[in-house]
């Protein structure tokens, strides 16, 4: 789905140049659940922004479904970002409106109208396990629940790729686990490709593949022998057999 080859990103601030990505190679397969870990300042957010079309690389190649992002027109880039990608941030204040209900917040970005919009919003709230909180104002929800609303919003227009930048950065570890479980479930049930950026190695252990980044380059890669989806499937088959 995504193929980065020698990706370079240089930020120019006044007369200073910051080499945020320095020849990064990475492939993301369609349908995978992966994490990118690395210290603060290593280039994680920069990479995620490139993958989501929020910013363009300075050099190298970034192919998305075979299309070169460096050569894509502004219009195609906007379309890619709007139609194919969902974003979740650590702090979702810019996407959420505190005095609206959870349902109203989720309805906002949905490109449908009337009853279909309402139905889609309820379906999304159900997908993130928040149907029972639909009529609560956003400020009445816990941090973890607000994060679920943000995930529902990110899924609103059926993206193929979900990018999450430190999505558990401001919740406690139990909540972080639950959010990760939700990502796993969405990956499995919707088949959506998910890339999570985190500096929490504990969290990263629970995805199918972990790539670590250092000074704007991939420094190591760890692959689980079995994906979580396969493991869960075996567990479920096991318990069914036990029931028989
Ligand atoms: P991470 O998300 O891993 O903490 P970032 O991708 O945010 O790292 O940053 C990588 C490097 O690029 C850092 O040195 C950071 O200061 C710099 N950087 C990030 N964004 C900008 C920007 N818009 N302008 C200038 N420098 C930036
Ligand atoms: Mg960051």
Automatic annotation (TrEMBL):
The keyword Zinc does not apply. Coiled coil: none annotated. It comes from the Bacteria. Residues 2-240 form the ABC transporter domain. GO terms for molecular function: ATP binding; ATP hydrolysis activity; DNA binding; transmembrane transporter activity. The keyword Protein biosynthesis does not apply. Keywords: ATP-binding, DNA-binding, Nucleotide-binding, Transport. GO terms for cellular component: membrane protein complex; plasma membrane. This is ABC transporter ATP-binding protein. It comes from Cohnella lubricantis. The lineage of its organism: Bacteria, Bacillati, Bacillota, Bacilli, Bacillales. The chain holds residues 1 to 244 of 300 of the full protein.
């Amino acid at each position: 789905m995504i193929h980065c080859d020698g990706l370079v990103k240089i930020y120019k601030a006044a007369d200073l140049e910051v080499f945020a990505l320095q020849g990064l190679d990475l492939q993301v397969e369609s349908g995978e659940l992966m994490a990118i870990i690395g210290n603060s300042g290593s280039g994680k957010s920069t990479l995620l922004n490139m993958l989501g079309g929020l910013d363009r690389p300075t050099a190298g190649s970034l192919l998305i479904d075979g299309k070169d992002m460096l050569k894509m027109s502004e219009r195609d880039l906007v379309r890619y970002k709007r139609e194919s990608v969902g974003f979740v941030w650590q702090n979702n204040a810019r996407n959420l409106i505190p005095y609206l209900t959870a349902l109203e917040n989720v309805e906002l970005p949905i490109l449908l109208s009337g009853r279909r919009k309402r139905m889609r919003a309820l379906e999304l709230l159900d997908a993130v396990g928040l149907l029972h909180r639909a009529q609560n104002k956003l400020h009445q929800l816990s941090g973890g629940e607000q994060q679920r609303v943000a995930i529902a919003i990110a899924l609103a227009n059926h993206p193929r790729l979900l990018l999450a930048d430190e999505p558990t950065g401001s919740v406690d570890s139990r909540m972080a686990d639950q959010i990760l479980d939700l990502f796993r479930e969405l990956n499995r049930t919707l088949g959506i490709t998910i890339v999570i950026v985190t500096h929490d190695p504990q969290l990263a252990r629970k995805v199918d593949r972990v790539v670590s980044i250092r000074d704007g380059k991939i420094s190591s890669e760890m692959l689980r022998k079995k994906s979580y989806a396969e493991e869960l499937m075996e567990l479920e088959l096991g318990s069914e057999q036990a029931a028989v």
